[in-house]
Amino acid sequence: NKNNNNNYESSPKALKMRSDEERSSISDIDSPSMVPIISPTFSPSPSFNANTLKDQSLLIIRSFFSSLDVEDSMNRLSAKKTEGFPGIEEELIFRGYCLSFERNSEDREAFCEFIRKSKKTSIVTEIDIVSGISRIIQELDDIRIDVPHSPKFLANIIANLLKDECISLNSTSNIIKHIHMSSSVLSQEILLNILTSLKKYENGGALIANIFSSHNFDMKIFSKEEINALKSKIEK
Prior knowledge:
Blueprint: H1 20-23, H2 50-67, H3 70-83, H4 88-100, H5 105-120, H6 126-146, H7 150-163, H8 169-182, H9 184-198, H10 204-213, H11 224-235
Helix pairs in contact: 2-3, 2-4, 3-5, 4-5, 4-6, 6-8, 7-9, 8-9, 9-11
């Protein structure tokens, strides 16, 4: 279970996992909404395109999963930003987390640590993280065909990011609302898994309380019955 597939031309079957070679180019997304935003102050060379961005991010991701060296990967990402690859942060977060779904829990936690330290040192921003996660959500129906537990893995990642203050309560709320737009059931499933993951952290109780009571987290998208069901499951 290493890397992934490359062709979305006929039907968007994301993340087809057949061979190591195919897995090395995870989820080649051709939808216009997925094209990375290019900074208006940057004038890319004629050879710069979405595939270049994908390839450059995958070089860092493959190196990371080969060594699990957080500092080296941070340096590589910082260097690519300096060389002039706008959007590589979002691209790396999107593809790296998707690839981590195929790997063991230690590798997923290590990639979370990579992103956490990159956020703390301002190599990536909260906007980069939320944008990368939003792209995962847009592809989640296809991703879960090949990785059925991907919603749970995504929830664990969001809980980890929230716990480490890499994303705010308001951003977490917006992520859940994004999911809710396509599936109320899935949004409840992921929120329940976020809450369950938070329980194991030292500051998890306070975060859970804030999710249910803070104005920064919009629970109005759920009915009273759904909210009570979530609370009941968390209290067990």
